[in-house]
Structure formats: C-alpha cells, structure tokens
Amino acid sequence: MKITELFQRGEFPITAEVGPPKGFHIEHLMDEVNTYLKDNVTAVNVTDNQSSVMRLGSLATCKAFKDEGLTPIFQLTCRDRNRIALQSDILSAALFGIENLLLLTGDHTTLGDNPQSKPVFDLDSVSLIHMVKTLEQGFDLAGNPLDGEPPKFAKGAVVSACSDSVDVQLAKMEAKVKAGAEYFQTQAVYEPEKFMRFMEKAKQFGVPVMLGIVIPKNAGMARFMNDNVAGITVPQDMIDELKKDKEKTKAGITGVEISARIIRECKEYCQGVHIMALGWESKVPDILKLAQI
Amino acid sequence: MLITQLKSKDAIAPLVKGKTIIINCHGCKEVYFPEHEAIEMQNELSSNGNVSAVITRDYICNPDNLSLQLKKYLDKIKEADTVLVFSCGVGVQTVAKYLEDIEVYSACDTYPLPGFQGVTPLEFDCGQCGECYLNYTGGVCPITACSKSLINGQCGGSKNGKCEVDKDMDCGWERIYIKLEKLKKLDTLKYPTKIRNYGNPYVE
Ligand code: SF4
Ligand code: SF4
C-alpha cells in the first residue's frame, strides 16, 4: 500500500519512526513494533543510520517488517552512498515490494559515531527525489534504460516547519515538490502556532504534510534539543510542565499529554501525523487515544 | 594553495635509518611551509649523527630543476640509505621518482589551504567544481560555503543561521538566501534540479 493513496482517499495516515539496532538482532525491535505499532499506525518508517550513527541497514529492516506483514517506509540518505549505490538500493527496495520512500540529504558524518568517515553527498535530497522519479520513468540518472517494467513508489521528503529560517526551508520544499516529492513529514513541532503559519504558506504547493511529533521525555531532553537540534524550539512553559511533576514525567505521562495536545491543536492544518518515539514506542497508543485520532 | 605540516616526531624519527639525507623545499608561493619547526625538528634528528646532509632548494617538484639542483650532491646521495623530504606531496613524489633506487620518505602532511594568492585566505574559496554556480547563488559559493556542498538548497541542519557541522560557521545556504532576498532575486533559486558531474576529467 502506498501512503499517497491514503491521502488521495482523504484518509489521515499515522506513521511511526523506528531506528534499527546497533547489531543485527531485531527480535526486541520486532516485539515493540508488533505490540505497540502494528495495529495503531498505517506504516512504520525506518531510519537510515540516523544522526550518522552506524546501525543495521534501513533496507534490510524494511524487508523484515514487510515479511511480518507491516507497511515499511524506507528512509534513504545521500550521506553514505553515491548515485550508483542509491539507484541500486531503490531497485532492491522494489524487488522486496517496498512501496514507500522517505528521501533525505542526511546529517553530516562528523555528527555521528564514525566521524572519520568520508561524507559522500554525491546527490542531495532534491536530486535524490529527481533520481527516483527518473527510475520510475524507466531510466537511470545517466539516461540508460532499465530492463522491464519500471518501479513505482510514494516519494516522501522532510521539511523543517518551525525552523528559524523557515523561508529558506520553504524554498527547498518547493524545489522538492518540483523534483517529484508527493508527501512531506515535518521535523518535530512544539509550537503549533508556528506550524499553522508554516502551513498557510506551504499549502500553495498542494502536497500533503504530516505533522512531526517527537515525544518530549524530560526537561533535559527538551533543553538539549533547543541547544543542538536544528529546527526545534521547545517553549519554556513546556519545559516547566515537564519539570513540574517529576514522577509523572518519568512515567511518560507528561510527554504523552503534550504530544496529544500538539496533535489536537494542529490536526485541522495537516494531512497526517508522524511520530518519532525514539525508543518510547510503548507510548504511541496512548498518544493516539488521547489525541482522538 | 597548499599547507604542509610536519608529521609528529614519533612518525618521523623511525624513518631516519642509516645514512640519511634531508631535502627541504622552500621555494614556492603555493605552499605554506613551516620553516622554523622544520629546522628545529631536523636539528633534533641530526643529533644521532645519522644525517649526512641537509639540502634546501626550491621548486623540487619540477623534475628538470630537481636534477640540476641535486647534481653536486649526487655522490653523497648515492651513499645514503634514506632520503627524507620536507615538502608538499608533489615534491616528495618527484624526488622518489628521480632517486628510484633509494628509500624516499615524506616528513610532512599536505592539506588544501583555502583561497589563492592575492585573496584573503580562509574567507573565500573556490573548490574548482568545473560548473560555477555563483550566478544562481548570489555570488556565494555553494561548494565551499556549505559543508555538504549542496547545490539545490539548504539542508535541515542549520540552527540560528549556523551550520550543523560547525557552530562558528555561517550556513552557506542562509547566506545565499539572504543575498538573493536583498537583491530581490529569490526567483533565481527556482532552477531545475542540479546534479554535479564528477565524470568531467578536469574535476577532482
Ligand atoms: S561554484 Fe564555487 S567551486 Fe564551483 S567554480 Fe564557482 S566558486 Fe568555484
Ligand atoms: S547547515 Fe547550511 S552550510 Fe551546513 S550543511 Fe546544511 S545547508 Fe550546508
């Protein structure tokens, strides 16, 4: 199932993001996904060596999820592969029956756990989207024809809706739409008003946007994101809320309440929700229930 | 431009084996050479009596020039077990080719130094990409001013106008946007998707 078909039918898809383990044992991840996500979300989005930390591959994990009856979204970044490897992996995904993609530039290698590695960036997010579109037309990037029926995907991209340079981000979003992006998911949103203002401008592009949610686990995490993570500002009153009842926050209840509140406030303005639980997959069902979606 | 830096003493000392000749290249404006540190290091290396000559010349990267300059030392060089070269990587390669039967080692690491002669180093740089994008980007180079050399717009990593890789570095794409906004030329950014051509034989 392609996520774009759901948007076309006017449905409101919910996706959750998971990170593969640092190792090849996925039993624990599979348990979490089967217990907390399978019946609650439309698709599971698998990160590609997120934050440049080396892990099990996104494609292999997507295949394992597919075999389990889940709908995976294959994340692909330009950091580690040149255009030959990227195109080849897209064809591999088609072989595995993976139909949904999320196409990104990727964090710089120096931010991760193997900072000595060579950053590739042969392509970037825009040319990566263009590349997939070219494959869908039956050709590789150099114009050589593919054998047989070309693959077809739902091509997703990301945008930083609450970025301090939102106009620069909107310009990039437009370039992605022109290159062939069919849906977007946003970086974590903590400021619904900013998100709504962003959507006012973004709706001219006519592509569905999924609201990005990162569950705030505690005040320390919020402050860390404020200092270090681009495009995220957790407002002070939200940090105070996380600090107020430490036991409640520790149990995850405050984070669930905040996440659900943001979804409720923004849902009229977006076409779906994307939850990045960062290990708190068990909280996803509670958030969705409280948000009434 | 290039910058050469001395390798560590621990890396260089074991290379000085048997009779050793040291060759310095001081001759070119393309390369920043750490003269004083090199002399200090060579004095230390000479203290064990192994160094039989220190030769300081210029443009050793030119093979004809090199053979002329080394002519009067050839007897000494032929007796040597090791030749240790303090120069950029090109100089070391030229010496190694010229003295084919002798072990030639490099005492330096070579890095690119932003900028060219006559411009302020470090402020502006050209990565010699072979397909200049400056006409689309308000005169700000996306290859050298963006840590990922992105040519289709900003990544999601910029925070408060700074690059995700280095908090002291302005995000190149933020600079491009601000410049084009000022010129009322933001539409320039609506170009069709660009893709680098690394197949160009003249591009690194
Ligand atoms: S875009 Fe930058 S690297 Fe390429 S030629 Fe122009 S100044 Fe040089
Ligand atoms: S933050 Fe700006 S300069 Fe740094 S890699 Fe991203 S777009 Fe390039």
TrEMBL record, chain A:
Q: Gene3D superfamilies from the xrefs?
A: 3.20.20.220
Catalysed reactions, semicolon-separated = (6S)-5-methyl-5,6,7,8-tetrahydrofolate + NAD(+) = (6R)-5,10-methylene-5,6,7,8-tetrahydrofolate + NADH + H(+)
What keywords sit in the KW lines?
FAD, Flavoprotein, Oxidoreductase
Molecular function, one GO term: FAD binding
Q: Does the keyword Oxidoreductase apply?
A: yes
* One annotated Gene Ontology cellular component of this protein: cytosol
Q: In which pathway does it act?
A: One-carbon metabolism; tetrahydrofolate interconversion
What GO biological process terms are annotated to this protein in UniProt? methionine biosynthetic process; tetrahydrofolate interconversion
Q: What cofactor does this one take? A: FAD
Q: Which family does it belong to?
A: Belongs to the methylenetetrahydrofolate reductase family.
Q: Which PANTHER family match?
A: METHYLENETETRAHYDROFOLATE REDUCTASE (PTHR45754), METHYLENETETRAHYDROFOLATE REDUCTASE (NADPH) (PTHR45754:SF3)
Q: What is this protein called?
A: Methylenetetrahydrofolate reductase
UniProtKB/TrEMBL annotation, chain B:
Which InterPro entries does UniProt cross-reference here?
DUF5981
**Which intervals hold domain Methylene-tetrahydrofolate reductase C-terminal-like?**
116-198
A Pfam family name for this chain? DUF5981
Q: What is this protein called?
A: 5,10-methylene tetrahydromethanopterin reductase
